[in-house]
Design a protein that fits this description.
Elements (H helix, E strand, L loop, with lengths): L23 H21 L22 E5 L5 E5 L3 E5 L4 H9 L9 E5 L5 H13 L5 E3 L8
Parallel strand pairs: 1-4, 4-5
Antiparallel strand pairs: 1-2, 2-3
C-alpha cells in the first residue's frame, strides 16, 4: 500500500491516499514463477528409451511402369506405353491412348504423370491438364527435373 507524502491540506499526520499501482509484488511473483519453471522444465523433458522397429516401404506387387504424358517444346504430345515405348498422340486421341497404355478396367482411377519441356507455352500445358480433367483423370502428377546449383 502506498501513501502520499506532503499533501496540501490536512494535519501533519494525515498522509492521504495514493492511487498509483504498486507493481513490486507482481514482479516478485513473476520472478518466483520463472525460477520454478526453469527448474521444472528439464525434468519434464526427460525421455523414455524405446526400441522402435525401422520403417519398411510397402511391397509393390504392381510391376507395371507408370504412364507418362510428355509435351515437347513444339507442343507435340507423347504417351508412354511400357518402359521404353513412347508414341505420339493428339488432344483428341489422348483419352484413348491413355486407356490403351494403362490397360485396366477403370483407367480414370490410375495416376498419370505429365512432363513438359521448359519452353512449352503454359497455355498448351494447361490444355493437356484440362483435357485430362474433362476425360475424368483427376490423379495427375507433375514431373520436375531437379537441377543442381552448380
Amino acid at each position: 500500500m502506498a501513501a502520499k507524502i506532503g499533501s496540501a491540506g490536512g494535519s501533519k499526520f494525515d498522509l492521504g491516499q495514493n492511487s498509483d499501482m504498486n507493481v513490486t509484488p507482481f514482479v516478485d511473483v513473476m520472478l518466483v514463477l520463472l525460477i520454478i519453471f526453469m527448474v521444472v522444465a528439464p525434468i519434464a523433458t526427460t525421455s523414455i528409451r524405446m526400441d522402435i522397429p525401422p520403417a519398411t516401404p510397402p511391397k509393390n506387387d504392381n510391376s507395371k511402369p507408370p504412364t507418362f504424358i510428355s509435351i515437347n517444346d513444339a507442343g507435340q504430345i507423347y504417351v508412354s506405353f511400357g518402359k521404353n515405348d513412347i508414341r505420339p498422340s493428339s488432344m483428341g486421341m489422348l483419352p484413348y491412348d491413355l486407356a490403351k497404355s494403362l490397360a485396366v478396367a477403370n483407367p480414370t482411377n490410375e495416376r498419370i504423370f505429365i512432363r513438359a519441356d521448359r519452353h512449352v507455352p503454359y497455355g498448351k500445358f494447361m490444355e493437356v491438364v484440362n483435357q485430362l480433367q474433362l476425360d475424368g483423370y483427376y490423379k495427375v502428377g507433375l514431373i520436375a527435373e531437379n537441377l543442381g546449383t552448380s
